[in-house]
Amino acid sequence: MTDATPHCRFCHALLTEQVVDLGMHPLSNGYLTAEQLGEHESRYPLCVYLCTACFLMQIEAVETRDTIFDANYAYFSSYSTSFLEHAQRYVAQMIDRFSLTPEQSQIVEVASNDGYLLQYFHGRGFNVLGIEPTASTAKAARGKGVETLEEFFGETLAGGLAKAGRQADLLLGNNVLAHVPDINDFVAGLKRLLKPSGVITMEFPHLLQLIDGNQFDTIYHEHFSYLSFSTVERIFKAHGLTLFDVDELPTHGGSIRIYACHADGPFTVGDSVAAMQAKECSFGLLDRDIYRNFSQKVQTVGRELKAFLADAAAAGKQVAAYGAAAKGNTLLNYCDVSSDAIAFAVDRNPHKQGRYLPGSHIPILAPEQVWQTKPEYLLILPWNLRDEISEQMAGIREWGGEFVVPIPRVEVF
Ligand SMILES: [Zn+2]
């Protein structure tokens, strides 16, 4: 242990337990232009720690958030059909369950991206406010009529909004809690922005599923924390918020949606809370052993993917990748994959086409390239969308093409 030993971003204890060291990686969302290929590409350690005081699994923040979520940030939620359907279902459920009305209810979403979700509240006449620091997505949201503040969320911003009468009846944030470097400032902001009778919902990938499904490719620099229900409950409690319900969701390989209110709020804690606590406890999330085994499982997938790519190359078979998702980059760079092993990647997002994956420098092309080149294998990097993608791309069967998913184990189908 040295002076450089990091501290837990929630409870500030020293992080002495290393879970897995994935090596040096460029930023997962740092898609490169052709001109940038010849330039120096910064790499940063991707080392996962467990706080043995509060059991928050986390990585060290190596970059400022401004660098990670800059104006070129290319993730647009609206490019995934299943994600839009998920958002639409959520909106209908919340309106029904919490009796939200356009006349009375203020809806606020933190990390509202391109308005993929708030557009459905807006369409039903609700007063909506999105908070989204990324310029390109915020602009797209405004194009959908979604009022969007181009800011990072925290206690200061929340305090200002609360004073301006913008406290929320429904305050939501999907896939953002794991991304915030200062989780205490963020949750304190949620507390400030919530009306006395309001509800917070937050969705995030479940640590239990990450470990159980060997989803180590979801570990990248933009994800600072890997969250369990129990640890999030502890963090919210420290800020005067109570978790009163939890849902399990299939999104991102297995997420949970938590429901929170003020500690003195009007909601009764449901049975789901004790059930989830028991589930996490019996799985072993509060023991160190499960984290130690995880490291072994990560190394196994690394060996399997390298062997698959070597065999394909030896047999003269071409491999292309589908989906230039951030998570694919952790996997490819952990396995030292280059454009020799994977000729190209395709993605529906036009903002990514014409660029190159960070680290591996694999070119990103439009999906049509698959029909022209006819690769023998299509490696689905966003394996959580394997059904959606294998259906869309089923045409590869015509030339005997097969799909490959890397996680939880390498599988050809
Ligand atoms: Zn801690």
Give a description of the structure.
By secondary structure, the protein is an alpha/beta fold. The protein has two domains: 77-287, Rossmann fold; 306-412, NAD(P)-binding Rossmann-like Domain (Rossmann fold, 3-Layer(aba) Sandwich). The chain has 13 helices and 17 strands. The strands form three sheets. It has a seven-stranded mixed beta sheet. The protein has a six-stranded mixed beta sheet with strand order 14-13-12-15-16-17. Helix 5 packs parallel to helix 6. The structure holds zinc ion (ZN). Zinc ion binds next to loops.
Please supply descriptive tags for the structure shown above.
413 residues, 32% helix, alpha/beta, 6-stranded mixed β-sheet, Rossmann fold, globular, 2 domains
* Oligomerization: single chain
User: Structural class, please?
Assistant: alpha/beta
User: What is the chain-wise order of helices and strands?
Assistant: EEEHHEHEHEHEHEHEHEEHHEHEEHEHEE
Distance between the termini: 46 Å
CATH topology of the largest domain: Rossmann fold
